[in-house]
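User: I'm curious whether this sequence folds into something compact or stays loose and floppy. Could you predict its structure so I can see for myself?
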Amino acid sequence: LKESARKKGEACALYLMDLDMENLCSSVNLAGHTPLSLAIKLGFNRVTEKVLESRSLYRLTGPDGFNLLHLVTDSSVKVCRLLLDKHPELLRENNNISRWSVLHKWAEVGKLWPL
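Assistant: Here's the prediction. I'll summarize afterward.
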C-alpha cells in the first residue's frame, strides 16, 4: 500500500482501501505504519476520513509510539476534528521517544489545530 500510494497518489490508495478495508486497516508495515497512520502522514485526507468514518478497526499509534494526532501536521482541519472527536484521549498521550505531547509536536511545526 505504501509504495502504491507514494507512486500513484491518493486515488490509488483509495482504490486499494476499497478492495479490502477491514484487513488493510489492521495491517502494519515493517516501518511500523498502518494504512491510517501512513495516510495521515502523507496528507491523504480522503483516505483518512474514509477510515475514520468507517466501522473498521484501526490502530491509534504509528511508528515509535507516536499517536495519530502527532502525525496530523499535513492533514486537513476536518481530519484533526474527526480524530479529536473520536479519540480525545490522544491529546494527552506522549510519544515513546522524546516524550513530547501532541501539543509539543504541533508547536514544533508551527501549527495550531482546533481544540
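Summary: Residues 2-109 form a domain with the Serine Threonine Protein Phosphatase 5, Tetratricopeptide repeat fold (CATH 1.25.40.20). The CA atoms of residues 18 and 24 lie 10 Å apart.
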